[in-house]
Amino acid sequence: xxxxxxxxxxxxxxxxxxxxxxxxxxxxxxxxxxxxxxxxxxxxxxxxxxxxxxxxxxxxxxxxxxxxxxxxxxxxx
Length: 77
Prior knowledge:
alpha+beta; 5 strands; 1 helix; 5-stranded mixed β-sheet; 77 residues
């Protein structure tokens, strides 16, 4: 199992919704499951970046030291 660095960027939410964590995960779906189980995010759509590159496949494999950034999509003008 890989150790990955996860950054959460939820602007406008409490400080506990923002931050960084080190977790163990084999693929991106495990990271997303942890986030969905930890926070009431039933109305968010996410942008997910692995090592600075946008990822759309939640079955993307993770390796030691990977950085995953999860940011919700906001509308505005």
